[in-house]
Structure formats: C-alpha cells, structure tokens
Fold this protein.
Amino acid sequence: MADCCSGSCDSGRAPDPRYRKVLWLALLINAVMFLVEVVASMQAHSASLLADSMDFLGDAANYGVSLFVLGMATVWRSRTAYAKGLVMGIFGLVVLVRALWTGLGGYTPAAETMGAVGVLALAANGLVAWWLYAFREGDANMRAVWLCTRNDMIGNCAVLLAALGVFGTGAAWPDVAVASIMAILGLTSAREVIGRARQELHNLEKQHA
C-alpha cells in the first residue's frame, strides 16, 4: 500500500477547495462503509469482511487527520498518529482473534452476504478513486491518497475471492486465510505508524531539551 495507507503520509492542507470537498466525501463514505462492514461481518460470521473494514477505518482516520489535525503543531500530529497506530493495532488483533474463532468454531460464513457487501465496498472505493483521479498528478501527497484508495480496491477483491471460495468449498478456510493476511498487513502498518510517531516525538523532545 502507499505510505498514506499506513498513516505515514504527511499531507498538508489542500490548496484546491475541490480537493477538500472530495476528502470530506471520502471521509463520510469510508466511515459509513466501516460501520456497514463491521455489522455485516458479525451477521455473516466473516472475518475477511471485518478485516476489510480495517482499511475503511484507516482511510477515514487519514482523511480526518488531513482535514483537521495537520494544521496543528507537529507534536499534536505525532500524538494523533501514535493513537491511530494503537487503534489500528488493537483492531488488527481483534481481526486475528475473530479469524481464529471462525476457524475453530466451525462457523461457515454467509458467502452471499460477503459477496454483496464486497461488491458494495468495491463500488465505494471505486467512486472515491474516480473522484481523486483528477488530482492524481498533484503533489506527492495528493498522489499518495489516490494510490491508497486504488490499492484498497485490491482488498475488496480479496474479500470477493474469499466469498467465492466459501461458496465453492462450503468451508470457512478461504475467509480465514484472507482475513489473516489482511490482519497481519494491518498490524505491520500499525507498527510502522507507532514507530514513526515515537521517533518524531523523541526528536521533538530533543529539540526542546
């Protein structure tokens, strides 16, 4: 994923008001889809849907930081990134536990629900990517945000493959496998965010010592 997907993209305030409007819309869509996938994952007993919701949560947080926090002092940006990394890490662990619970509990996810929500998630990310396409040749941060959304569509496709696998095999292992991979990637991103935030806070402390 692009750096902004892991929370390390240091986007400034966008000079183009159209871009800020797109970020607001993207924030709303990602927040709504996070809730939709969390609820659907519980109803369908799908760990991969829960894992995919982690991407929506991370993106919503990144858009929120871009719009609200990055105009503040550096120390607050770093503290926010640290907190966000902790939340990402906790959520990644929840996904792994959910995947283990699904695999050992003998639950077979509802492939139809997985497929329907997966298509909806792909459409949501596709719409945001289409809006951001016009700004893909902007500065590095604008391009990173667009690439982040585009790459998230790969996760949506992974959920659809998991749904197809569950439907074809009648077993839970495709869902568990996809969820585990996505959770590990999320934990890796969380570790990177926390490490970078701690380094920034350490550097700030040295500067003011």
Q: What stands out?
A: The radius of gyration is 18 Å. The chain has one domain: 16-207.
